[in-house]
Design goal:
Layout: E1 3-4, E2 18-20, E3 25-26, E4 40-42, E5 64-66, E6 87-89, E7 110-112, E8 133-135, E9 156-158, H1 169-172
Parallel strand pairs: 1-3, 2-4, 4-5, 5-6, 6-7, 7-8, 8-9
Length: 174
């Protein structure tokens, strides 16, 4: 269990592709992270209270990012710097409405955003044309916008344990 930061020795492993730091008491991610060419980074349940912006320094290499079970509440628009990000897990992070992910429109295939505080799905999420899996369980959604039906690559849509009152015909045809 690390205290506050990632041990410096980890950054000596410059060929590292996967780094799982989950369930450690990290306060922040330092700029040393850019020494690595990570494809998969898991920093779930680390007590983070904001999006770790230093992760953005993994721009071209990072494909999978797991920030679940932290209290980050929002995702900065600079997430678009992660130009090859295909999977984003922000389950149980305290995220509420107003989150914009269209910056990942060209790459994101899996979005796990369950157990947050969403009351609506932003219509601009229809721009996530590569999206194959969308997990929206345990939010406060009342409806799913018809625009989501335009996601032609979508194979998995999980919307259980919400407050849905209706499912439109377009969504029903997915």
């Amino acid at each position: 269990n690390f205290k506050d930061k990632i041990p410096a020795k980890i950054f000596d492993f410059t060929n590292l592709e996967t780094l799982i730091l989950s369930a450690n008491a990290l306060k922040k991610i330092g700029k040393e992270i850019q020494k690595l060419h990570l494809q998969h980074l898991a920093i779930a349940d680390c007590g983070l209270t904001e999006f770790p912006r230093m992760v953005l320094r993994l721009g071209r290499s990072l494909k999978n990012l797991d920030l679940s079970d932290n209290k980050i509440c929002s995702i900065p628009k600079q997430i678009g710097r992660l130009v090859n990000l295909t999977s984003l897990n922000v389950k149980h992070c305290g995220i509420s409405d107003g989150i914009s992910l269209h910056y990942l429109a060209k790459t994101l295939k899996i979005l796990e955003i369950s157990a947050n505080k969403l009351s609506k799905v932003p219509p601009e999420w229809a721009q996530l044309v590569k999206l194959e899996e969308l997990y929206l369980n345990k939010n406060s959604l009342r409806t799913i916008p018809d625009a989501i039906a335009s996601l032609s690559q979508l194979r998995v849509l999980e919307i259980n344990r919400n407050k849905l009152t209706t499912i439109t015909d377009k969504i029903g045809q997915l």
